[in-house]
Amino acid sequence: MNSLFRKKSITDLLAQSQQKSLERTMGAMDLTLLGIGAIVGTGIFVLTGVVAAEAAGPALILSFVLSGIACALAAFCYAEFASSVPISGSVYTYTYATLGELFAFLIGWDLMLEYLLATSAVATGWSAYFQSLLAGFGLDLPKAFTSAPGAGKGGLIDLPAVCIIFLITALLSKGIKESTRVNNIMVFVKLAVIIAFIVAGVWYVKPANWTPFVPFGFDGIVTGAATVFFAYIGFDAVATAAEEVKRPQRDVPIGIIASLTVCTALYIIVSLILTGMVPYTKLNVADPVSFALHFVGQNTLAGFVSVGAIAGITTVLLVMMYAQVRISFAMSRDGLLPSVLSSVHPSFKTPFKNTWLTGLVAAAIAGFVDLTTLAHLVNLGTLAAFTLISITVIVLRKTHPTLERAFKVPFVPVFPAISALFCIYLMTSLPAITWTSFIIWIAIGAVIYFVYARKNSKLV
Length: 460
What we know:
By secondary structure, the chain is mainly α. It has one domain (about 25-455): Amino acid/polyamine transporter I, CATH 1.20.1740. It has helices at about 10-15, 30-40, 40-55, 60-85, 90-100, 100-135, 160-175, 175-200, 215-230, 250-275, 290-295, 300-335, 350-370, 375-400, 415-425, 430-455. The longest helix has about 35 residues, at about 100-135. GO terms for molecular function: amino acid transmembrane transporter activity.
C-alpha cells in the first residue's frame, strides 16, 4: 500500500527543474500570449450563442463570471505551485509531490484525455469555420471529406481537421521558439478581431434585448457556467511550460494570472454586447459573433471575424497539443509511461516522437469520430484537475512550510478550499453520461497503473 502513495521529493523536483533537456526560450509576455492563445477560441466564437439560447439567456454574463471566479481561485493555486516547483507536468507533478503516485498517475491520465479530446474537438470546430470561409469564396469541398462518419452529414473523414492537426504537429515538433512566434502573431490577430467586434457592436446594442435577463432562472446560470467552463480551459497549460521558461518562478505566475484576467474581461464584454445586439433566442448558431454582425448588416466585418475565428481556434489547437505532449513527457520521464514519450530530439530539443504520436492519435479522432457526445468530458476532466490543485496547495503548505514561494495564494486554506468546493459544485451540473464515461476512463487508467506504471516507476 505504501508504494501506491510514494511521493517525489521537492528537492528532487527542484534539481530536475535545473536540468536543460528542454530549451528555455519563453518570457512573461510569451506565457501570457500562450494562455490567451489557449483560452480565447471556441468559447468566445462558438459557445456564447448556444449557451445564451439554451441555458442562460442574457444572464450569460453571470455564467462567465461564475466560471471565471472558479478559474481565478484555481489559477492562484497553479501560480503558487509553478513559482515553487517550476517543472513540466502541471497538476500531475504537483500531485506526485503531495498526494502520491497513484493519484498523480490518475490525474495525469485524466489530463491526457482532456487535452487530447480538446485538440480533436477544436480541430473539428476549425474545420467548420475553414469550410465556411471557403464557401464565402465559392469553393466547396466534397462532402465525403468534410465531416466524420456518424456526424449525420454523409462524410467519410473530416479532412480539414486532420490537415490542421498535422500542420500544428509539424510546428510543435520543430521547436518551441517557432511555435511561440506563430502563436503570438495569431493571438494579436484574434484580439484585433474581438476588439473590432466590440467597437462596432456596441452601437447596435438594444437594452430591450436584455429583458428578461434571467429567463432560465439560477439553474440556467449554473448550467451555463458549467458549459462555458470549456471557454476557460487553457490557462493551466501555461504551467506545463515551466521547464521552457527563462525565469519560471517569476514569469509563470504572471502568465497564468494575466492571461486569465484579460480573457475574463473579454468574455464578459463580448457576451454583454452579443446578447444586446441579437435576441438570445436567435443565437443558437455555430458562429454567433459573425451571425450577430450579419444580423445588424455588418457583413464585411462578419467575414473579417471568420478569419479571426480561424486564427483564434488555431492557437487553441497549438496550446492544447503542446500541453498534452508535456504532460505525457513528464509521466514518461518518471517511468509511468513508455520511455519513448520522453525522448528529446538532439537538434530541435523537443519531445519529437511524442509530438508526432499525439498528433496521429488526435488526427484520427478528429477525422473519424463524432465528438458531440464527448464534449462534456473535457470540462469534467479539467474540473477534476482544478479540484486537485486546490487540495495540493493546502497539503504543500502543511508539509513544506519553509519552501520558497515567489507567489502565494492568499487566505490559505480558505481560498483553495472554496476553489475545490466551487469546482465540485460545477461538476455536479454535468450530465450523468459524462460521469459514466469519466469513471470508465479512470478505471482504464487504474488498470494501466497496476499493470505497467507501478512496476516501471523510477521511485523505488
